[in-house]
C-alpha cells in the first residue's frame, strides 16, 4: 500500500465531502484506504480547523461555507492573519510597476497599505472596495476591470472588459481563493470569478497567492490556477513538512 501523508489524506477527505456533503467514517476509510482510527484522528484535526463538522459516526461540511458569506463578513475572518499577509506582500512591489489585485478580502488588506504608499504604481483591479480605497492616493493610477456586480460581493465579474489586461504588462497578480490543494491548486466556487481569474493569471508575469492558514487543504468546486501556474504563496503560519515536500511553489511566511 502506498503511504500518503496526513495533508494529502485530509485533502482527500475534504474533496470527498465537497462532492457528497457528508460521509461516514467507514466510507472515508475505504475512500482513503486507511484505518478508521486514522480517519477519526483526521476528522478531529479538520474540525479544530473549522473545515468540517463531526457527526455521529462521520462528518459533514460546515453549512456556513464562504460562498454564503458576504464580503464584509469575510473581511473579519482571520483578520489579523490577512493583515500580516497584506503587509508582507507590499514588500515585493517596486516603484513604477503595474500590479493586478483580485477582489478577495485578503487582497483588500494589501490595498489598505497601498492606499498610503509613496510608490508610483499602476493598479488594475476587479474589486470595488479596492478601487474606492486606492483612488484617494495620487501616486496610483487605478483602473477597474468591467463586468457584472452581484449582491454581497466585492467583485466585478465576467469578461466584458477583460481585454484591458492585454494592454498592460502586469508585473504581479495578487490573488486569493476559497481554498488551495496540491492536486487542484487555487479553487473557488463562483464560475464568473474563476473565469476572470484564469485570464488574470495568464496575463501576469508573476502570480502571488495570498492565503491564510485556513485555506490549505480546502478544495472548492472550480480550479483557476494549478500549482505550476503559481509562482509564490504568502501565508501566515508555517506549513507541514509533508505539504512543503509535495509542492514546488515558493512558500513565504509573513512576519
UniProtKB/TrEMBL annotation:
GO terms for biological process: lactose metabolic process. It comes from Mammaliicoccus stepanovicii. GO terms for molecular function: DNA-binding transcription factor activity. This is Putative regulatory protein. Residues 6-61 form the HTH deoR-type domain. It comes from the Bacteria. Gene3D superfamilies: 3.40.50.1360, Winged helix-like DNA-binding domain superfamily/Winged helix DNA-binding domain. Keywords: Lactose metabolism, Transcription, Transcription regulation.
Amino acid at each position: 500500500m502506498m503511504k500518503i501523508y496526513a495533508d494529502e489524506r485530509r485533502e482527500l477527505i475534504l474533496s470527498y465531502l465537497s462532492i457528497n456533503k457528508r460521509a461516514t467514517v467507514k466510507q472515508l476509510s475505504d475512500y482513503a484506504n486507511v484505518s478508521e482510527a486514522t480517519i477519526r484522528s483526521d476528522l478531529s484535526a479538520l474540525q479544530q480547523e473549522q473545515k468540517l463538522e463531526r457527526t455521529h459516526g462521520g462528518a459533514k461540511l460546515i453549512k456556513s461555507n464562504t460562498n454564503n458569506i458576504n464580503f464584509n463578513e469575510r473581511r473579519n475572518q482571520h483578520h489579523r492573519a490577512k493583515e500580516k499577509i497584506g503587509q508582507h506582500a507590499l514588500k515585493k512591489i517596486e516603484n513604477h510597476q503595474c500590479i493586478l489585485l483580485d477582489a478577495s478580502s485578503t487582497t483588500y488588506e494589501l490595498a489598505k497599505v497601498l492606499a498610503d504608499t509613496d510608490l508610483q504604481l499602476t493598479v488594475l483591479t476587479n474589486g470595488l472596495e479596492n478601487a474606492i480605497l486606492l483612488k484617494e492616493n495620487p501616486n496610483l493610477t487605478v483602473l477597474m476591470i468591467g463586468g457584472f456586480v452581484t449582491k454581497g460581493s466585492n467583485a466585478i465579474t465576467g469578461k466584458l472588459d477583460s481585454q484591458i489586461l492585454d494592454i498592460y504588462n502586469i508585473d504581479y497578480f495578487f490573488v486569493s481563493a476559497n481554498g488551495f490543494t496540491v492536486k487542484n491548486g487555487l479553487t473557488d466556487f463562483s464560475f464568473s470569478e474563476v473565469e476572470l481569474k484564469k485570464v488574470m493569471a495568464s496575463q501576469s508575469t508573476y502570480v502571488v497567492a495570498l492565503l491564510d492558514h485556513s485555506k490549505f487543504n480546502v478544495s472548492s468546486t472550480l480550479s483557476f490556477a494549478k500549482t505550476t501556474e503559481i509562482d509564490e504563496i504568502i501565508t501566515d503560519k508555517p506549513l507541514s513538512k509533508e505539504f512543503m515536500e509535495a509542492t514546488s511553489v515558493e512558500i513565504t511566511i509573513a512576519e
